[in-house]
Amino acid sequence: MEKNKKIYVAGHRGMVGSAVCRVLENEGYTNIIGKTSKELDLRDSIAVKEFFEKEKPDVVIDAAARVGGILANNDYPYQFLMENMQIQNNLIDAALKQDIQKFIFLGSSCIYPKFAPQPLKEEYLLTDTLEPTNEWYAIAKITGVKACQAIRKQFGKDFVSLMPTNLYGTHDNFDLQTSHVLPAMIRKFHEAKLNGNTPVELWGSGTPMREFLFVDDMAKSVVFALENVLPEHLYNVGTGEDLTIKELAETIQKVVGHTGNIIWDSSKPDGTPRKLMDISKMHNLGWKHQIELQEGIEKTYAWFLENIENFKQVKL
Ligand SMILES: NC(=O)C1=CN([C@@H]2O[C@H](COP(=O)(O)OP(=O)(O)OC[C@H]3O[C@@H](n4cnc5c(N)ncnc54)[C@H](OP(=O)(O)O)[C@@H]3O)[C@@H](O)[C@H]2O)C=CC1
Ligand SMILES: C[C@H]1O[C@H](OP(=O)(O)OP(=O)(O)OC[C@H]2O[C@@H](n3cnc4c(=O)[nH]c(N)nc43)[C@H](O)[C@@H]2O)[C@@H](O)[C@@H](O)C1=O
């Protein structure tokens, strides 16, 4: 990919979008564009069409979405279904009509069935029912994957979908109602430590297993997909290793230095019991993560401390 190609990163201020911009800049790309949701509401099909006609990007990276943890997904099903479909439909359709050759769509590991065999292979898509806490978001993401696959099949364009495992890192969302588990734990343990090591309340049973990928590694997989023509339409992206939520809590507790108790609130949902990604397809092509969980948590906690006055808190 020539370094002066115009690359539109949708969601360029988000956790993933901002990391993608940083990696692109480090790699020498000179023509990266982005708009905030206030400047361009991607749910507005006319505004998106006009933006594409004016800007004529060469490449689109879709890192814009309504994103949240287990509770936000469960409590706001309409927003997670409808906003995500609107955003991705408008981007994908405008990209097709503007004859854009390369489009990278980001989905999520929750597209796979709740009780699929582990590790999750790409071909398990649509083989069984979804996890109820996030089926709305998952269905939206599945329609995005299928739209990109349909464009490849019908028009022969390089529209590809990457399915990230649970992500975390700098610029994460630290709102305790809407965030994912890892940033929530960092904030909860930190605040409890400052309050004299008071007990920390976590959700569910602690037994579900999750796989975590640091956002810089995710961004590098996006740039890898940009710079290579991937032969298939769908690729899992992760580390290939998971741990229980209880083990995650103990790891974060040590990094933060909290010495109080942990209480498990069983009124909150566990979600899917396990969703470990099979990442052999990406490995065979040459991409592999570089940052292990311990290092990634330390980097994220350091970033949280540096940004303690104004870290992001997404409200719904
Ligand atoms: N975080 C995770 O654990 C995972 C994320 N993913 C996927 O990765 C992608 C990026 O997620 P992540 O970076 O974590 O999410 P963030 O919430 O950090 O960023 C999402 C971005 O989307 C933009 N956006 C949301 N709604 C609109 C809208 N109506 N119009 C324009 N822009 C909008 C926001 O822009 P603005 O800031 O300007 O409002 C925001 O910057 C998403 O597709 C997500 O589904 C997949 C698996 C796991
Ligand atoms: C990326 C993925 O993220 C979402 O799925 P999820 O993995 O279930 O999300 P999560 O990170 O919020 O929780 C992981 C586990 O952790 C437990 N847990 C404990 N204590 C806290 C806690 O304090 N906050 C949160 N959020 N979870 C907690 C929680 O009960 C659950 O068992 C999808 O909706 C969807 O958006 C998606 O694709």
Automatic annotation (TrEMBL):
<keyword id="KW-0521">NADP</keyword>
<comment type="function">
    <text>Catalyzes the two-step NADP-dependent conversion of GDP-4-dehydro-6-deoxy-D-mannose to GDP-fucose, involving an epimerase and a reductase reaction.</text>
</comment>
<keyword id="KW-0560">Oxidoreductase</keyword>
<feature type="binding site">
    <location>
        <position position="180"/>
    </location>
    <ligand>
        <name>NADP(+)</name>
    </ligand>
</feature>
<feature type="binding site">
    <location>
        <position position="270"/>
    </location>
    <ligand>
        <name>substrate</name>
    </ligand>
</feature>
<feature type="site" description="Important for catalytic activity">
    <location>
        <position position="108"/>
    </location>
</feature>
<feature type="binding site">
    <location>
        <begin position="106"/>
        <end position="109"/>
    </location>
    <ligand>
        <name>NADP(+)</name>
    </ligand>
</feature>
<feature type="binding site">
    <location>
        <begin position="164"/>
        <end position="167"/>
    </location>
    <ligand>
        <name>NADP(+)</name>
    </ligand>
</feature>
<feature type="binding site">
    <location>
        <position position="141"/>
    </location>
    <ligand>
        <name>NADP(+)</name>
    </ligand>
</feature>
<dbReference type="GO" id="GO:0070401">
    <property type="term" value="F:NADP+ binding"/>
</dbReference>
<keyword id="KW-0511">Multifunctional enzyme</keyword>
<feature type="binding site">
    <location>
        <position position="188"/>
    </location>
    <ligand>
        <name>substrate</name>
    </ligand>
</feature>
<comment type="similarity">
    <text>Belongs to the NAD(P)-dependent epimerase/dehydratase family. Fucose synthase subfamily.</text>
</comment>
<feature type="active site" description="Proton donor/acceptor">
    <location>
        <position position="137"/>
    </location>
</feature>
<dbReference type="GO" id="GO:0042351">
    <property type="term" value="P:'de novo' GDP-L-fucose biosynthetic process"/>
</dbReference>
<feature type="domain" description="NAD-dependent epimerase/dehydratase">
    <location>
        <begin position="7"/>
        <end position="238"/>
    </location>
</feature>
<dbReference type="InterPro" id="IPR036291">
    <property type="entry name" value="NAD(P)-bd_dom_sf"/>
</dbReference>
<feature type="binding site">
    <location>
        <position position="210"/>
    </location>
    <ligand>
        <name>substrate</name>
    </ligand>
</feature>
<feature type="site" description="Important for catalytic activity">
    <location>
        <position position="110"/>
    </location>
</feature>
<comment type="pathway">
    <text>Nucleotide-sugar biosynthesis; GDP-L-fucose biosynthesis via de novo pathway; GDP-L-fucose from GDP-alpha-D-mannose: step 2/2.</text>
</comment>
<dbReference type="Pfam" id="PF01370">
    <property type="entry name" value="Epimerase"/>
</dbReference>
<keyword id="KW-0413">Isomerase</keyword>
<feature type="binding site">
    <location>
        <begin position="11"/>
        <end position="17"/>
    </location>
    <ligand>
        <name>NADP(+)</name>
    </ligand>
</feature>
<dbReference type="GO" id="GO:0016853">
    <property type="term" value="F:isomerase activity"/>
</dbReference>
<feature type="binding site">
    <location>
        <position position="203"/>
    </location>
    <ligand>
        <name>substrate</name>
    </ligand>
</feature>
<protein>
    <recommendedName>
        <fullName>GDP-L-fucose synthase</fullName>
        <ecNumber>1.1.1.271</ecNumber>
    </recommendedName>
</protein>
<dbReference type="GO" id="GO:0050577">
    <property type="term" value="F:GDP-L-fucose synthase activity"/>
</dbReference>
<dbReference type="InterPro" id="IPR028614">
    <property type="entry name" value="GDP_fucose/colitose_synth"/>
</dbReference>
<dbReference type="InterPro" id="IPR001509">
    <property type="entry name" value="Epimerase_deHydtase"/>
</dbReference>
